[in-house]
Amino acid sequence: MSDVARAAGVSPMTVSYTYNQPDRVSAxxxxxxxxxxAVLGYAGxxxxxxxxxxxxxxxxxxxxxxxxxxxxxxxxxxAFLAGIAEVCAxxxxxxxxxxxxxxxxxxxxxxxxxxxxxxVWTTTDDDPVLAAACGTRRPVVIHGGxxxxxxxxxxxxxxxxxxxxxxxxxxxxxxxAVLSFPIDRNRHTFVRCGxxxxxxxxxxxxxxxxxxxxxxxxxxxxxxxxPVGVCSTxxxxxxxxxxxxxxxxxxxxDAVAAMSDHLALAALREAASPLRxxxxxxxxxxxxxxxxxxxQSLREQGAACATAAFGDPAPDHRGAWRLVRRASTGG
Amino acid sequence: MSDVARAAGVSPMTVSYTYNQPDRVSAxxxxxxxxxxAVLGYAGxxxxxxxxxxxxxxxxxxxxxxxxxxxxxxxxxxAFLAGIAEVCAxxxxxxxxxxxxxxxxxxxxxxxxxxxxxxVWTTTDDDPVLAAACGTRRPVVIHGGxxxxxxxxxxxxxxxxxxxxxxxxxxxxxxxAVLSFPIDRNRHTFVRCGxxxxxxxxxxxxxxxxxxxxxxxxxxxxxxxxPVGVCSTxxxxxxxxxxxxxxxxxxxxDAVAAMSDHLALAALREAASPLRxxxxxxxxxxxxxxxxxxxQSLREQGAACATAAFGDPAPDHRGAWRLVRRASTGG
DNA sequence: TCCTATCTGTGTAGCGTTACACAATGCACC
DNA sequence: GGTGCATTGTGTAACGCTACACAGATAGGA
Lengths: 331, 331
Fold this sequence. Notes:
Two copies of one chain form a homodimer.
Chain A: H1 2-8, H2 12-20, H3 27-40, H4 47-54, E1 59-63, H5 68-73, H6 75-91, E2 94-98, H7 105-112, E3 117-120, H8 128-135, E4 140-143, E5 151-154, H9 158-170, E6 176-180, E7 190-193, H10 203-218, E8 227-230, H11 236-249, E9 255-258, H12 261-270, E10 276-281, H13 284-288, E11 292-295, H14 298-309, E12 322-324
Parallel strand pairs in A: 1-2, 1-3, 3-4, 4-5, 6-8, 6-9, 9-10, 10-11
Antiparallel strand pairs in A: 7-8, 11-12
Helix pairs in contact in A: 1-2, 1-3, 6-14, 7-8, 9-10, 11-12
The first copy, chain A, binds a DNA duplex (30 and 30 nucleotides) through helix 2 and helix 4.
């Protein structure tokens, strides 16, 4: 910058003002500075220096969970990210995706990223990355929990929504089952009866499972007899395998509460006999295949997270879900 | 940091070394520093200051085109982004999405973003954002062109691929048509015959259109009689509308070369009589509906772009496509 | 005993920028 | 001609960090 100032025959401050408060300098000086900058190939103030001086980076950090791969393969995570991106675009702020899931370095990366605040996508209570984000003394907004001091929570009331969906799908069922997202950080795939929600590491999954259990109990169904098929990702191919295991262990399965529309469709496709099915998210898939589902907008929730991270009041999304009844639960 | 140094009774340099080269300081000093940092709530070196000093940000910038919304709604753009993210994760670098599409400010944002290099997602030749990115003197890698001095290109040979797809889908056709992505920056939706590829602003779309024209000519079809339906986004709902317009203007339409599987499926759904259809990308949709399609991996291309942006040699993707023949073209 | 090598801690200087206070100028007004 | 005000340019100081060169201490070898 000082080179430009010298070449233009003005002081560095004049150059700085030329870029930041053009009205502060005369048209003459401005022209001189612009010409000198063009000649020297100076593209404008250095971003790092500027944010050092300014004390803020005008950038929002996003942590997408243990493995970036899972996040980008999950349309819901993408929708969430889109919502964040929208808010960032409105405000002219950058959106920095912090790469995690590659090892012990994750924490350092979270600490060393040049961001003003963090939005954390659904993760486990004990995720070290989460601890690192909170430890940086930057504002942290967590989607779907867990609850921590100094962080803001955004998300729907998954337990209530799951209870409503469960009531619908289990209503006439004699052999109900659940198709679930992972319950531990290793993303084990398995089928087991009566999984205790309290042992689930992911808050969102925990709440949904608790909600399904509530619904089962409301209907007098013995939860300890309800098989839960756990999938490692929100992926149809794997879900069908898990569904086959469910069918093998529970021959006359007649209802499946699934934690996503993808999983629900996988269940339908594997089912031989008629099956009541509910999904989650009200995606295109649900509409196309007439799935009963819990409608929510991850995009709006992403936007709310971003807004909250910027320190502005965000709408409360706890009640922002709706049970959409369709043919997959009889109507 | 100097506060921590004072509290720990050491020099600032010792604190710095504690974080950056822990082996450089004695275990004793390290412990003192860590304790002082914990007490004072110091989370580690400030990222902005560090990158100012270091001269690099260890962050890759991504420009996704005019409107972020379009990008996140397009699964192919998301796959591309996922590929970039993967490479960033491997290298421990951040991935900064620069928000554009909000007005004149776009250029400033691109210039003012704290990144070491840029990857630009398919855009028009004359996109001012592209010019801004190139003007920052940072390495720029462009997906799908256009060609500019000092930038690297990554992408398949769209023209050759379109020619192959066109040869397949137009083979027995008497009334062929094309379903295209936008051809101008305003993303106008319309139907017109014999669109001249040279007038198309998006290089990828231009090449594909030219390839379809090549194929038509090879088969002795008069290009000026071939209607092209232009959709503003990669969205099925709108594509069906455009397809209806095509059918209205060309009653006995019997072949559609579409620039994506979504568009191809939209064409199939609207068609009353048998229709030869080809798509693009070999997505789940194509597999499910047995669509002939041009297979390519946007994810790999994203990874290649990121690798190239970091200054490393990236594989040549020009030939990384394959025509997948399925039932939608009779075989 | 002296010389060298290793280990650990410290000071300096500068990365590129901008907030702030101040100086110089011109102009209008009484 | 002096006063007040707006306009425009400049210097200083700091934002927080680390590469580098150096200093003191300790140990080992000749």
